[in-house]
Queue: 4 jobs
Job 1
Amino acid sequence: MASVSPGLCSENTLSTAQKAKEDGDTESTSSSFSSSDYNYDLEPEWLDDIQKNGELFYLELSEGEEEAALARVAASQCLSTNHVRFSEKEAEVITEQAGTQRRGSRRKGEPALKKLARILGRKRRPSQRKGGKDGSRGKATPSPPASILKTQPGQQQGVAVQQRRRLKEACVYLNPKRLASSPTPLCERGGLLEALLGVVHRPAWTGGQTDRGAVRQDGRLTVHGLIPNSPAIKCGQILIGDVLLAVDDVDVSPENIERVLSCIPGPTQVKLTLETAAPVDSAAPSDSSPAQKMKASPPVSQLVRLLWGEDTAELQMAIGHIPHIVMYLSLKLDSSSLQEEEEILYQYPVSEASSQLKGVRGIFLTLCDMLENVTGGHIISSSLLLGKHLVHVGYWKEHNNLLVVGLPAERVPLLSLQTVVGDVVRTLKVMYGSLNSAFCKPDHAPRLDHFFCLFFQQLIQPWRLREGAPPPLPDVSGSLFLDGLPAVRWLTLPPEIKMEVDTVLSDFESSDFGEMSEDFFGLRRLYVILGSCLFYKSYLIANHLPKEDLLDVCLYCQHFCLLPLASEQRVGQLVIWREVFPQQRASGGPAPGFSQPQGRHFLLIVGLRHFMQCVLLEAGGCASPALGSPGPDCVYVDQVKATLLQLNTLEAAMEERLNVPSAPCLSCADWFLPAATTRDRLDSLASSSPVLSKLAGAIRGSPSGHRGRSLFGEKSRRSSPQRSLSDSGSEGPMDAGSGLPAAPGLSPHSTPDSGRRIGGRRDSLGSDGSGGSGGLFKMPRMKHPNPFYLGTLKKTLTDRETEEMYNTTKLTSGTENTLFHYVLMETVQGIFIAPTHREVAQLSGSIHPQLICNFHHCCLSIRAAFQQSLPARGCRAADRSQRSGWGLGPVKEHGVLFQCKPENWTDQKKPAPTMTYWVIGRMLLEPVPQEFYVCFHDSVPEVPVEMAFRLSFGLGL
Amino acid sequence: MLQDGSTQLLCLTASSGVPLFTRGASKQLPFSVIGSLNGVHMFGGGQGALLSSCETEGGGKVVWKVFHDSVMLIAVSGGGSSGACIGEEESRLQRLLENVWSCMVLVLGQDELVNLRNIERLKRDLRSCFCLIDKLLEEKHQGVLGDLTHCADSLVPPNPTPLQEAVDGFAQAADSEFGCLFVHGRIVVATEKWWRLAPQEVVLLCALVRTLSASGSASCDYPVFLPQGSPTVAHRLLRFQLLPGADVCVLCGPTPSLQKAETELVGRFWSPLIETLRSCLAVGERCLPGSVPLRPDVLALLLINRETRRSVSCVQISSHHPLSDSSLSKSRCWELLKLFYIFSISRYFTQEETLCGSPEESTQSSHTEDFLHGFSHQPQQCYLVTEECKSYGLQTQQHQFFLLVLPSVPTFALRTVATQTLADIISATAF
């Protein structure tokens, strides 16, 4: 902890909490968020989690999410165990009390880390379930009242009737942190039992108030009442009259219950063992719908568990048979050392398949040393055949040490191996400064294990970390391609929202914290805020960081899956603090005369709900130098939180933006295939054809004077081919459907002359084409739905509406929208845009997901071709004379045509229909370096360079 | 250190690591390097980790391969030879190693190579393969892509019928079913049985005939083993020069003698066809008869018939072309065509494998196509726009077609140009 007076802290949290109240939004979940996120306590929740070296990784899911996730885990009877996190001291207390607890394997060298007290070998009853989502989310009304007030007649007689008593187990989610924040003072009488669990127990209950009046038995914790909206009532299984026997298998009595409950340090799920008079199953029959059980899927929390540092063994076991390894080897031989395997400085994982790779490390060392003398370059990769598995091994040499990463070829093709290895090295460098400092400190080992566990899990079985069942077709290349791009996924926002976001961020970055700031007390600043960037649901929406810093930060976020985390589930609170070593700053500034201040840098990431802000701080330089390993500073954390809360008001706007199909409309591949079944055909007809014919009609009816410059005037909305500036007739073929009489031009059989003419002109588009197409995109486009995703709407459409709908910008030419997918990367800013996940999900279909996988796979190849030509570009002049070593030369554009057929084509009489589409990549150097990848239907010849310009200007990048 | 762009071939015995020969690169690698390269592979094999390839910065590449557990071949290519992308150089070297092995079998027979009884004698015997192996290593060799495509380089004559009849008759008279006519080292016509030989054998026989005819002798009698057909029993390859640049050859048994065939048969069958042969020679490097129109902006093309495993390739540089970039030389065009072929094949198109050796070896080498298997849909066509030219490749059920055109051709017209050119060639020659 940096030295900030507690007074400062508390005032600050107060102010933020007030702000939160002002911001209070109308969503039903707001209650949970405001109660879990704020506290009047002096200490923030994450304080206990700060490690000795000042690092912090604190993740707390929002209430609803976490409960749902945990309940799903429990209900699905998943094999993994549940864990309760206890801090060291308290866990010991429990161990004393109940010998049944076993201590989880403690990670050595991390005394300050959360300790895990693992409670293994529980039996769960299959009938167990929770009250359902509405129950946990509902504001005040507990969902099925029947489940709380027992309706069985047997109960009415009270406890004296000794029915067959049964034991039942209930899992509840408890968050002791919320205690501090609850407005009611800690219950005078009920203590933690009431405050935390929501169970009312009156030791001297006299009975009068309820007619079923649970009679008190000495030494038994009978449930006399339930507090509304408490965990106990939400879980729906704790009934009045039940007797609480054990918490997490620790026997409890009125005497020790407070102590046991106080041992729960953080948000977790606990298992309550209760004695009840009625069979549980009959209590709430509506709950046991199979659908709910089907929905249950443990992976929700797999990622979170992994991030919490729990439960890596099971995940790692699942890929134990796939050979993969990371080793850090020393090339220096020290014969005096007696240690075994001393050349291995670090190794992960320890499995059978990886031990085989470890066994041949001599190969890696020899090759690394020798090949440099043979071919004159460092070794990059080698391929090995281990049994049936082909393994690609990537190398990274630093000083006298060698990092070796072995990955299965079916997951990481050779083309992208170098990118993957380069990224992991850069991430390590950002986190630790250099590979040597990362690997050579023995106490880093557990953390590195965790790091590489995440690394391999993401590469080898990414679906285990995501929600839901494994997709039939894992888009491995998709993540390889998108993560490998030196850019971050960007979400374009409407200008007014964008401005607001930027203003809020700038306000924060000005470090003008008013009474909170160090200036106010006449102190030197602790940190200078170098910049920050803001993510919403894994999309970057604002960035005030230089590109290289942004990439560093993004690599870190990517590695720890923070982006998908924020998009899939609402993060209750995420606070990450660590020292980082931004690569650009570490290697010295680009300008020779200017030297970067020799400061230390810290990364602060704060996430609330779907927002996540990453702040890069500098200590030293202008601010006071950092001593030792400072932990997160409350003021800065709270200021970021305040910023995020301020931004929360924009969430609705963001959602709206995400729901609206973005600038270029997309088509679904399935619409272009003659459907296999009639139902499909109807669907596709409904979704595309009527609109299309209407559109075509509208255009046909329009006067033909829409060509030429007027395209970009008022009337441009009606004309289909927003294609070019250079049209004067020669670029007309795409208008075939619209029936424009002119344009004999570039039909497929054009003469070379006309072709050349156009080719020449095309190149000039970059300069003079910009203004016009920029104007084209200023048309309002926000609210219009995708014309090809209309569904039932189309019946009510008037012609006018159809026309308006057509205003939605279309990237492709021709009447039909043939665009399937696109990725545009802006190299200078380090961002890329692509259709949002939601947009892609809307275009459901059987072929389309395949198509996107294929697109990404092809992009890997295209980008590799671009990359390969980059060095050639550099030394072009020198090489041109001597032809050898020139290769294919710099690749500007590369396209591949694919053909797809519907799967399981049953009709034997007719051949399966086919659909062909292009995947094209284009590298632009002027006016700004960009890479553009697009996938569209084959029916219209496109000029990718134009599409790229259209896209980038249309989105105002 | 290896020079940029050169490829060195190392051959050792797999079990004992005795070097048999090294070819390529003017400067031989030091023996310690050769030993280590062999050693790491041997060690890995013992540990169940079979090393297959390695890559270094700047495009350097090492590829290992063991044939029949007896001979180890290692290809080392210095950086930047072709500047090709990662997968491409590897598939080129893999193919080179296969070809070299087949060459050795072709000349020496499989028995001698698999059962290493006398290493010193083998070393001496292997010298007879050197000229053939050097031909394979020689990258500058223009106009022949067969070693890469494993499809026989062909030349389409203007008037094939009399030539076909002559070859059939000539082979029959020589007690053989395998007869073939070469012009400029490319196959013009051949007997039906000749085409039934494994494609790789056909390609190697072409290479052999080229080296033999380059020696300048009018005729020769050369014993050959067929790597697939008869790796242990030798046949006789009789070659006769009909005209400079035009050779005919037959594969036959013990009879007839070279003397007899040369004096009795050659004149009988071929002297009436001298004019036809001259017209074939006139087709020259274009490989396609003049009746096939080619657009002026076509720089080079390669057409492969996937069924008959024949290929036609040509480079047309018209120096007087107003728009042609004079910097694009003929050799560069061949290089680009080759590179584009490897690029497309290693990433998108399938290549029919004809592998020598055991099945486990074939699985080992097929992993270079792993990237190809990652596609969920079938790639049909592809194009590449570079600074020097534009390239277009397409694949149909029967053909693979690769075309290089001038950069001035608009990109969106490439497809039309390619399909049109393909259709023109097929309709004119029925290739």
Job 2
Amino acid sequence: MIPMGHTIFNLTRVFTKYYDCETRSIFVRCNTVFHWLIRFDSSLLRTKWFTTKRTSVRWSPMVKAELLKIPEKKLPCQILIVAIGPAASGFVQSHLLTDDFQVVGALFSGLSDSDVNTFDQMSPADKNCYIYRSRQIPDVFMCLCKTDVSAEQSYSWTEQLFSCISTASPHFYMSILCSYMTSEYRSEVPVSDMNPPFLRALKTPRFAGTPLCPYLEQPNLVSGLPAQLLTYCQMKDVKAVLYVCYTDTLYLDTFTMEVFKPLVQSTPIKDVFQENKKAGEVMKHIVDIYSLKNSLYL
Amino acid sequence: MFVPRDNKPIDFKGFTLIYPALSVGNVAQLMADLLISTMTMHKVGYIQHPSLIPLVGNDPYAHPSATTCKVVTCCEVYDSVEHNVVIVQQRSPFIKGRRNAYKKWLAQWIRECGFSKVVIATSSSADERLDTQITGPQFRFVASDKIEADYGEMFRNFYEWDELERRQTFPAPSVLEAGDRGQGQLYIPGGGIAMALFNDLCSDTPVVLLLMFCSEGDNIPEAIELTNRINRWLGLILFHVSES
């Protein structure tokens, strides 16, 4: 039992709240009468007292049925592309996410009070995190993470993503795309001379190829969800590459999304890429939807 | 959990563990970086724990003109078989509220590995020093019973190291209760999990805590001094004095 402080319900008796870790419920004990008075159900507990938020994953019925037939209980995967943030997600949505891809799962890591989503949760500017899989090639996955996953939740998010996706294949390739502000980039050269937006990369030792942009120089770091995903791949000793786009614009624009465009010729994205003439239109549409939410003056 | 590199099982029995605690000025971590780069230690594994903020970057020990990519993560284990030393280098802070969980796991892992001795390096806020600590060497040590028995005299008499002064608890005990000099508690403000880890391990593991008093700023001189003192004891890097 963990004491949680005193609550004075009236002037004559002091009630003490206790939390039972095992049953995850709250007991209130009146210290003039030694018996348990009230028991709260754990669903009433909110993060006011407990800061452990965990990410949860949901898979479609089709995937759940498939998992029952697989002894390892993990879907085979050869290519996994994870896009984190609006710029990377916008690029993947406009250039890579064709009608061939269907939603097979979703990750939930909580929304903040200022997040406003549409009712059907399918708008480009919605804060959601869907996992897509190709219908034609079922071991190609994409995950567009538009929710703000905090550093504290990154471990749990990664655990949940890989709970049903296997990295065991010898041909497994993972590509992580994310974006940072140029204010977080440290270099001897002034950032204005570097013509933002620009790309930098980090890769695991198993990734044999050379990324299409320079490696991230010291002393720059990547933290949070992209870091946790790369760390996971590093520990599992699989092929993974992380591309970071440093941008100086606060709001999403087509220039920031287009900086990822050379990656369509890089492994593993080139194995998924199909020429899409509507990519420009889709990017513009995404920028328009985001600008509706970002208007300072309405 | 500890994940060995290349999935090869590793035996740390008999090694000396140097654990730099996340502390004020990052002195202990700078010391660890100095030792790892000077002794060109090998990365033997990763520590993956939900209490650590994730972090990746390029190799900090590479030559400035190097153009390769060697990813480093938030917590890695390096060893040197030649020197019989293992260092756990932690590069990112703890997630709020989860320090204790990590400390418990770390203490258990240290016991399981069977290290011959554990050196916890840390630093303490200079603005909370006692009056007697303001002048003189800014280095202190705290030894467990086993280390005290083996090295206590050497530390005090030969190296002339100072033991960390104990502080009176508040309210101070009366004269009758005060008893011998051993009363009072150890207080290391800004020392991270060092004190808690020391208290956890001192009953059954030979563990010593070495600390420097410092403030935030350019802490390279403190890191070098801490490294020199550890090196003097463990004899990791030999300095040759040229005779001319």
Job 3
Amino acid sequence: MQNGEHFGMEDETYTDIDGKAISLECQSHSGFCREFTVSSAKVSISRVMVYTCAVWMTAYIIFFFTENTAVLSSAIIITLVGMMIHIHFVKVDHETLLVIGSLGVQVSSSYASGRESTDFIEMDKIKDIVINEAIHMQRVIYYLCILLKDPSDPSGVSSVVPLFQSSKPRLNCLVKVYRSCQEILAKC
Amino acid sequence: MVLKIFFPQCCNKADSGLLVGHWLPGQDSAVVLAVIHYPFIPGQVKQYIHQIRGQSGVDLAVLGSWSMPKEGQEGMESFLRELRTIFPQGRWLQLSREMGKIGFTCNVLPRDQNGKLVEQEKELEKVENDLEGKSGKDGRGWKNEEAGGEGKTKEEKTGEEGDKVIFVHYEQRKVMLSQLHPTDPPVPLTQSTSELRQVFGTVSQSESLFFLDKYDDSPVKLTHWQSEGREGSIIVELMKQASTPVCLLTAWILVLWTSLCNSRILNVFPLRFISSKLCSCVQLSYRTEHLQTVSSPTRATSHTDYMRKANIFMSFLLDVTLGLLLIYWLYRENRVGQLANALLPAADRVAKELEELLQWLMGAPAGLKMNRALDQVLGRFFLYHIHLWISYIHLMSPFIEMILWYVGLSACLGLTFALSLLSDIIALLTFHIYCFYVYGARLYCLKVYGLTSLWRLFRGRKWNVLRQRVDSCSYDMDQLFIGTLLFTILLFLLPTTALYYLVFTLLRMVVVMVQGVLQLTVDFINSFPLFALGLRVFRSYTLAEGVKFSVLCEEPGTPLHLMMDINPLKFSSVVQTYRTATYSCYPKDSWLALCKKLFLGELIYPWRHKTTKID
């Protein structure tokens, strides 16, 4: 085995809280550096076609009544701009958690257009990584989060950074990630 | 604890030599800044490092040795080992890299130990020498790993020693030029606790180390980011040379201008009051202050000062450019003349509309029945004012075009000045509406106060000024009689006054809205940080929000290699951090307080300028 061990999808298939299938990839670069990637489903072409057809049908019907070509061109522009905004700002392709012992934790979301938004939290500021419960609408969900230290109060928590917010994996996936993280955090 | 070594990318292919850098206090990390090559004399190296330490304020030291063996340099390894005795330190790093391999190997020799020990014992010693409070925990942790390591098939000896060191590669030039946000007030290196901040601070303060490199004719030959090729721009150098006389000239002109403004003649009370109310005068003084900041001959010391100066300068340039464009557009087809010709009929029309409005109010507006006498008095009073106003405008009509022509030229001072002039012109042209509003408001206010006071009398109470509360009071018969009479009169005249007040307040609100929009635009142009945004777009590494790590492809048996990139600041944070302070303030009354004031008839000034600047 190479230094970077690679676990792909195992026998367990993971789902998110709404029941859609997601996949978890754990990569161990060294004894104290691990990377976890949770990927959601990609943009489905059928949904795109349904939305586009709906918008254009409406536009044609309005054009039929008003005889104004501006309606058609504005429908095209709206569809294009809406799609661009969706894949660039809304649709998250995969989320990554990179834990480097004694350096810090890096949280990154990668969008469908390729844009990546990253945040790095130094180890000095991290108190712990825990699984928390939350009440979301009518149900209780579990989520993984990082507790940050309060500079004024050594035993207090100043803020909570939730992880994997777009993919929202269920407890079995979270437990696996949690155990791996705790191994590294315990070492340093 | 894991040892972190921050290694510059430019030294990846450097020849063998000594590593020069800085051990970060309080953290188990070292920042490598440069590599000194052979041949060198250790005494000269020590002297050079001592000199740079004094110049830069960074506690530089020789961290260890770097070996990248090429053909014909076989004896280098042993030579490098001997060097350890010449430079006595805490820990000595032996980094080595072989051609064809990507990863480095590292040996860490602890204090007071000679030669290479057996790996396990060395690790144990290193752990014992570590900072207080952690040795016990680390020892236990290490033992667990040892025990676990024996059970594993791979990741044994070579992996164990590699496991304790992380190499973080950084691009030296970018880290040197970048600024970590939030920029706190300057703290000495030793006191800040964040590791990344210390790394950035070390590299940026070591600029004096990067003056000499291996191509210079000096006793000490270094490799750092300058060795890849020095960069410079002729235009930037020329501008730097030209900026000093230009700054001095501007400063001199500004001194003349401010002394003129502050002279006794112009400081007479009415002029001062008027100039503090007019937007254009305020904007002029604001811009003068800005230019004084920009043209000061002292260099900006901190990053915030530098950004502020640059932003002000760019905003001024943009302003003037937009102003010149406006002049070009206005004067090209004699639009100024057209504007002047259109102004008089527009003023006439406004006056006519107002007259019609007053005639409507004097009749039966919206079916309400007004008190005829009061109605006629108020209506005629306001009509006379409008008549005066129209005569005044007609008197001015031959001069309007010339005035407008010269006023339009003043837009070369900037678009903001032109907009504030426009706002002032609107204020002057609608002065009669302002007067009507004040008359109506005062009348209404008096009426409301009278009513409240007489209502109290009606109920047998009185306002106690001493105690600031309502007390009961016994009135005489004739006092009560007159009070009730007055109360009835005021009450029945209330609808008329209230209607006039309502109409004129609405008109005033419209004018205030227009002026407010102009003022907001001026504010926006004044405070927009153009330079900071340009920097964020073209040189995104200079404004850093944080860092990003990515794992470089690793080989078995070598320690972990990470690449540290700079994570640039988001656009919204750039605008928020670098907005120039402006002089205007947003309405400080909430909507509820505003409605209350309107109801009571108090005069409102929603866009009052503050004398002190706020962010």
Job 4
Amino acid sequence: MFARGLKRKCVDQEEVEEGALAGFSSIPSYSLQRQSLLDMSLVKLQLCHMLVEPNLCRSVLIANTVRQIQEEMTRDGVGRGTAPQSTGRAPLDRLVSTEILCRTVRGPEAGCPVPDLGDGAIQGPLPELYTVDSAEVPRSPQSSLWEMDSPRENRGSFQKSLDQIFETLEHKNPSSMEDLFSDMDSSYYDLDTMLTGMMSSSKPGLCDGLDSFAAAAPSPGSSCKSDLGELDHVVEILVET
Amino acid sequence: QTLDKKAVTSLILKEIHFPKPKAPTDIISTVEFNHTGELLATGDKGGRVVIFQREQESKNQVHRRGEYNVYSTFQSHEPEFDYLKSLEIEEKINKIRWLPQQNAAYFLLSTNDKTVKLWKVSERDKRPEGYNLKDEEGRLRDPATITTLRVPVLRPMDLMVEATPRRVFANAHTYHINSISVNSDYETYMSADDLRINLWNFEITNQSFNIVDIKPANMEELTEVITAAEFHPHHCNTFVYSSSKGTIRLCDMRASALCDRHTKFFEEPEDPSNRSFFSEIISSISDVKFSHSGRYIMTRDYLTVKVWDLNMENRPIETYQVHDYLRSKLCSLYENDCIFDKFECVWNGSDSVIMTGSYNNFFRMFDRNTKRDVTLEASRENSKPRAILKPRKVCVGGKRRKDEISVDSLDFSKKILHTAWHPSENIIAVAATNNLYIFQDKVN
């Protein structure tokens, strides 16, 4: 789920790096797929709302997935110096690796970059992505997920670009937010702090590629046996008019 | 709301169409037999409950033995609006549970996301006639015309089935109710939402005891929710609840008032070779059911059904693959949200066979003794009258045989989430979106 400009840029980067024609039909690299999964998850956290309270179980599972991706990205980012796991991966890691879900609960993490992933695509050379302002640690959208959104006017607007959203996250004062929500207890969440303008249809090859690396091999056996055998006397199904 | 009892005849494939045209509210959201199997209740997205009753066997029509016909229909829940949160409360019936029958009337609990209701379903086949002050149409009689006193008598009338709400248990759940379970003492029941479980007495509607609370003090730390809960069938102090992390906790209410500490904790260690970003999601348990014997619990997660022995916490004793061919499609299923579908699972009366649903209107049965399994389809197109349902097979890869269906052809919008098994006979009810199928043994 990339913004179009971003994906093209990444593919171009890949082409530049590897000197081969990647093309749109090739399976994106692991880090791109992982980033896509992260973006998809963030979009999902927004989609279910409006009139009915969102499904808390689904939201929790998606949020946990987001956290897993983020943790792995952190690990890869930290351990990148030791052994990159695949060629052409290092620069892309820098491109997409984010600490966007830094949690104030655990304290501001050192080197908390907020990359510009909006429609404007990547601005300038890569190192500029890592402007860190430790005083403005973005409040975890996690917390805002479960608490009630107070400003009513946010409810309707959807089409903010991602960089606006991250700015919003960055600038929110954590303690005041907690004061605001401390006596509220509800099961749905502030959706609009994380709105994204990146709601495009699924990119070709994303899920195929992701499925192939993310999942174990399917079991070789067939999923059902056709002969009823002893099952006959247990259930014989009659269809009557 | 009453409905004259009428027989719904010529049920094709014993499939019962709701009389209204197909609408999103006709989607069946729960199916449950009562304790004798005489009644079958369904709840739908529109808040309606439809109860079917099994026909008495008669010598004249042997092969119409045991058909289920509509017995009662009523509107259990209405849509509501929570003004404080500016949110709608869906009227969809999440669960129905029957109480054991103790007199001529039937009682069931039905719940939506927020409110549990106790309904009494009773028959009226007599009515009093011969009142002194009113005439037969109910109009008041002119006292001047009354010259004698008479005693009203009860005369037979056409059978009428009435459903009346006897109790409303409201305002006890902040989060969405996913389960209700009647205790074996028949005096109490529990209702479980995403973070809390409450214990109720049937007679008291303005109080309930909170027996499980997993809400963290700081909601930022929320990583796990309750997905299902059930009382032990015989021990009224014991219940289990499952979580979105694939764990089951067994609690004993005698240990403490708030069962924060479990008595037993069931979790299977993760298989590192199968680990992916979706591992946690597919491990989330969508249903938990005690066996009739009370010795085992069965859990359903996205790809498997597992049977656990209550005496062994570290792993299940049996694991059945429902549709393992989906393992390589998890990303797509995550994208289209199918990975969050909550399938239920059921035991047969003797605990020897377990059943659960899948996609493409398929449902699966596993014989625990012979280890055989079968895939069947709830669909009118593929079944001829009086024929035995043909087993279906999903082709995983390579050559597809004539009758097989390939994984990519599966229809993921046709999902069987809710099934029920008669408590003592081989009769099953399968809900396929807005159609109800009832299948039973072949009559010899």
